[in-house]
Q: What sequence folds into this?
């Protein structure tokens, strides 16, 4: 399938499943070779669920654990406005070495929020692994430890990534055909 249509938008094939699996192998082997001890993987839902499943089954570090979190946005007080919080983080994180698993890092705003929340929970060490990274869109200076593939500033779907919640089940990654905004 070289094209996918979602809500009248046409997406074209961008990264095939074979390449995705090569990228997953490469990231998991980099993580396995790193010096991180007793890691707690933190998968950021929803987008990362397939990437997480594929990465985690390849991790060979002893005492590896995994948990799943979701960011929720809500309207706080008038002064704070929109606030992001993490739902689902029941682990005691103090002194833990965590590895964040992200599907894609775009502006980096989500990543910055997650890191801020984890630091408040007194983690020992934070490493970040992302399947995709858009350097042209990135607005932060937080270093990313494991990057699967750098991509241009295109909107992509498939392998967990969505457009209006659709497209997550596509086995390949597709990009929006025309440079219109999603
Ligand atoms: P951020 O801009 O780095 O905060 O990215 C926030 C979130 O937007 C990511 O975790 C994705 O869920 C979503 N996102 C960013 N770029 C894309 C894309 O190209 N396709 C689908 N979702 C995206
Ligand atoms: Mg996401």
A:
């Amino acid at each position: 399938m070289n094209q996918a249509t979602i809500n009248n938008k046409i997406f074209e094939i961008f990264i095939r499943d074979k390449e995705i699996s090569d990228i997953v192998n490469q990231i998991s082997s980099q993580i396995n070779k790193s010096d991180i001890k007793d890691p707690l993987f933190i998968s950021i839902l929803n987008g990362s669920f397939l990437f997480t499943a594929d990465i985690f089954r390849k991790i060979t570090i002893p005492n590896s654990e995994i948990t799943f979190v979701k960011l929720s946005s809500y309207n706080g007080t008038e002064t704070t406005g929109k606030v992001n919080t993490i739902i689902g983080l029941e682990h005691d994180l103090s002194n833990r070495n965590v590895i964040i698993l992200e599907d894609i890092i775009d502006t980096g705003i989500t990543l910055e929020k997650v890191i801020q929340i984890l630091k408040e929970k007194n983690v020992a060490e934070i490493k970040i692994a992302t399947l995709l990274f858009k350097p042209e869109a990135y607005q932060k200076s937080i270093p990313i430890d494991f990057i699967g593939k750098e991509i241009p500033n295109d909107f992509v779907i498939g392998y967990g990534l969505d457009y209006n919640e659709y497209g997550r089940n596509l086995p390949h990654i597709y990009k929006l055909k025309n440079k219109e905004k999603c």
